[in-house]
Specification:
This protein is an all-alpha fold and about 475 residues long. Helix content is about 80%, strand content about 0%. It contains 24 helices and no strands. The longest helix has about 45 residues. The termini are far apart.
Length: about 475
């Protein structure tokens, strides 16, 4: 009897098992294929510079296999994996500079995910950035505007909306790159941001929108309007954790753009008084010291710099700059020996900072400008040796690239053009793309063009620059230089 009623349960179990297998098996296979594709993707990410064409092709085909399971299963339950796979494929095409294939993939995603507003916004942003990267600024503007009007005109209160807030400002910025007037576009962007502020006045999104209004004014060099917008945030959102950043930005505008030293001092002091534990405290105190130095008050400046080192020792970069500032305060008083000790101390105590990078060349230039040629020669030699040590300590790093750039500057300041050229070629050949490496190209072209009167050498450098960085913001200026040289 017991066996008889167990038999139907066994049949039912088989049926349920088959049903489960029919729905679970495609998912399992798709996830397994997605995992394998991810392994190939990770190999490319480890060192993109070494990845070959076939590595990209193999990885793309692996992700297309994932999409194939979606087609086989008639779209049941695999949409998330298919979407992820398409995004990866688009990114792989983009990494190779294959813009049209990238655009095709994004367009497919837009067509297939019309009900997912957040995903549509992300894909449209990626599409706009792709057009911008390929230099089609008109298309990029069109996509940015569509994104702003469709998503940010009535944005949800989520993280994606916050991340997309800078999007409207891309439109006037691209207009400026096209050489067109952007005033109307900045006004349009501000109206959009103001709409967010008015509709959701006490939300984090509204605060960030108000900050974008300040940024838009700063873009146009309207510093008074920009700082007024920032001060509006301070008054309207007194409890926001972002206020130290807002105050710091306002302080920088008062100090560097409006030359209102006293107002800047009060603004930086607000950070120290109201947010004593904030990480920006060291930078605020450092700015106060620099302002006192600017006002010709070296003793007060020195006191502020000493406070940075005392109160914010974990902020290594600010402490290094403060140590440099102490040296500068003594130099302002004409006490070079004391200044020199402080400058040397930067190198000893804070060796891997931007302040330390400046010191060797700064000291050599001091003696050169003072006309003490024998000491200048010694210091330039010592500086080159110091920078070479920095390169050897961390080769291929960004810090080493900056040190290599400084070596070239040592030779440039001595008018030793051939040594400068050799150092600059090392910079652009031996280090990954970075700001100092970009500077290296431009300096190298300048030396060939203006110091050696070598037009062919300059053209070679500028041509190589455009080959490696075809969409760099300086490309038009470089092209103009090439035209002038021909």
């Amino acid at each position: 009897m017991k066996g008889r009623w167990l038999w139907p349960l066994f049949i039912l179990g088989l049926l349920v098992g088959c049903a489960r297998e029919s729905s679970i098996l495609p998912r399992y296979k798709a996830e397994k294929a997605f995992f394998k594709a991810g392994k190939l993707y990770q190999r490319i990410l480890i060192n993109p510079n070494l990845a070959q064409k076939e590595d990209y092709s193999r990885t793309i085909e692996a992700y297309r296999k994932v999409i194939g399971f979606q087609d086989q299963d008639k779209g049941r339950g695999l949409e998330d994996l298919t979407t992820k796979a398409r995004l990866k494929i688009a990114q792989l095409y983009l990494a190779q500079g294959e813009y049209q294939q990238t655009i095709d993939e994004y367009q497919k995603l837009l067509n297939d995910t019309k009900q997912d507003k957040d995903l549509q916004a992300f894909v449209r942003l990626s599409l706009a950035q792709t057009y911008e990267g390929m230099g089609d600024l008109h298309k990029a503007i069109e996509e940015y505007r569509t994104l702003a009007e469709s998503y940010l005109s009535s944005p949800p209160q989520n993280k994606l909306a916050q991340e997309l807030l800078p999007t409207p400002l891309q439109i006037p910025r691209l207009y400026r790159r096209l050489g067109k007037g952007a005033a109307n576009e900045y006004s349009w962007a501000r109206e959009l941001y103001q709409g967010i502020v008015n509709r959701w006045p006490q939300t984090p999104l509204a605060l960030l929108a108000q900050n974008q209004i300040a940024i838009s004014y700063a873009d146009q060099g309207k510093w008074r309007e920009a700082v007024n917008a920032l001060e509006g945030i301070v008054k309207k959102y007194p409890q926001s954790p972002l206020l130290p950043q807002i105050l710091f930005a306002a302080g920088d505008i008062y100090s560097e753009k409006l030359n209102l030293t006293d107002q800047a001092l009060r603004t930086y002091q607000q950070i120290l008084d109201n947010y004593p534990e904030d990480p920006l405290g060291g930078r605020a105190e450092l700015s106060i010291g620099r302002l006192y130095l600017k006002k010709g008050l070296p003793a007060q400046a020195r006191k502020a710099f000493q406070e940075v080192i005392k109160k914010f020792p974990k902020d290594v970069n600010s402490s290094a700059e403060a140590q440099f500032g102490i040296g500068a305060s003594y130099e302002t008083e004409g006490k070079w020996d004391q200044a020199l000790n402080e400058y040397r101390w930067v190198l000893d105590k804070y060796p891997h900072t931007q302040a330390a990078l400046r010191i060797p060349l700064y000291l050599a230039d001091h003696y050169s400008q003072a006309g003490i040629e024998n000491l200048a020669k010694q210091e330039y030699k010592r500086a080159v040796k110091t920078y070479q040590g920095m390169v050897e300590d961390s080769p291929k790093s960004l810090y080493a690239a900056y040190a290599q750039e400084k070596i070239a500057q040592c030779y440039l300041h001595q008018k030793r053009w051939r040594e400068a050229i050799s150092s600059l070629w090392s910079l652009i050949r031996d280090f990954p793309p970075s700001r100092p490496m970009i500077n290296g190209y431009l300096l190298l072209g300048m030396v060939y063009e203006t110091k050696l009167q070598d037009k062919s050498g300059a053209l070679k450098v500028y041509k190589e620059f455009l080959r490696r960085f075809p969409n760099h913001p300086l490309k038009e200026k470089v092209k103009k230089k090439m035209e002038d040289l021909k």
